[in-house]
Amino acid sequence: MTRGDAQKVARVKFTPRKQFAMTKEEHLARWATNYGGQGKIGWTRDGNLVRRGPPNKPRPGSSKGKIGKTRVIGAKRVLKDFRFLVSTLRQLVAKGGKF
Question: Residues 11-27, buried b or exposed e (16+ Cβ, 10 A)?
Fold first, then answer.
């Protein structure tokens, strides 16, 4: 890199940053509440990025068709423990306990 190139890079690197219209939190809050007439954020792909044609066939030896349905074990116990925790916290707050 020549001295002139280094000066150009330094000029770009050390210039003061522009102030944005809003912070990231404000932008997300406006999007979540649909406040301010801001359009919705869509996750659909643009037309030129959409895949054309049928999906690819699985490769030989892949796990396609070998993996079963996911089982959730212990969900009832977790919910029971969570309800107990919430009720205990409510009792503490009712007694005037502080966290």
Answer: eeeeeeeeeeeeeeeee
Find where tokens 């792909």 sit. Answer: 45
d(CA 63, CA 4): 56
pTM above 0.85, yes or no: no
DSSP 25-58: HHHHHHHHHTGGGPPPP--PPPGGGS--SSPPPP
Output b/e per residue, 89-98; b: 16+ Cβ within 10 A: eeeeeeeeee
Mean pLDDT of the chain: 81
pLDDT of residue 38: 54
| Residue 99 pLDDT class (50, 70, 90 cuts) | low
**Per-domain boundaries in the chain:** 74-99
- Quick check: 31 and 38 in contact, CB under 8 A? yes
φ, ψ of residue 21 in degrees (nearest 5): -65, -35
